[in-house]
Amino acid sequence: MQPTICDLEPAHLADARRLLSQAFAADPYLVAALPDPRRRARALPMLFGAVLDNARQHGSVRVALDPGTHELAGVAAWAWWPHVGLGLLTSVRHGLATLPLVVGVRDTARLDRLNRTHEAAHRRLAPAKHRYLHAIGVAPGHQGAGVGSALLLDGLADADAAGVPTYLETHRAENVRLYERYGYELVQELRPGDLHARCMLRPARQP
Fold first, then answer.
1. Residue 90 contacts by C-beta under 8 Å, 6 or more apart in sequence?
2. Span 35-71, pLDDT tens digits
3. pTM, whole model, 2 decimals?
4. Residue of 16, 14, 41 whose CA lies nearest to 26
5. In what order do the strands lie in the sheet with 197-202?
6. C-alpha span between 154 and 112 (Å, rounded)
7. How far is the C-alpha of 63 from the C-alpha of 20, rounded, in Å?
8. Is-contact 205 163, C-beta < 8 A?
9. How far does the chain reach from its first CA to its final CA, in angstroms?
10. How confident is the model at residue 167 (pLDDT cuts 50, 70, 90)?
């Protein structure tokens, strides 16, 4: 049975933050930036709280609900360019100003360097008007059931209706073929340090 796709409601905000924190706990990008697992676990709810807030203000947060239990099965955060980075107000609101106290100055600086590298590539590779898939995650109990595909198709349909391309980065090689099936093209690979990022762009399609 297909999940119900809808906008994120305030009542599900904490669950969405928790789901993305779990989904990205071992993500290569975040492991490279925040290598200590305990510090990373404390930082992720702060980071994804800011990601969700930014997407709610400057794009959309779409969620997949289990049709039987209505529990949160997946989350996708989309942002319109140029609101793809986390501004000062959003960062402060979610406590990111205190991130050095949580993960240390060295890890905070490492995260900032990686963010800057990715954002520079994003500005260079993506057109002036587009949607950015900042994060997409599926709850462990719902993986392999088409939840991620349903969320992705939902966001792509919105982009096609607006006549704009979409952009994303992935740090897992196995995801490249997955996104290519939905029309994304690999436009550049980044190798900051030991990290391997794949930058992907999907042209707008006629709805």
1. 50, 53, 54, 57
2. 999 999 999 999 999 999 889 989 999 999 998 898 9
3. 0.93
4. 41
5. 4-7, 59-65, 72-80, 131-138, 166-170, 197-202, 185-190
6. 31
7. 11
8. no
9. 25
10. very high
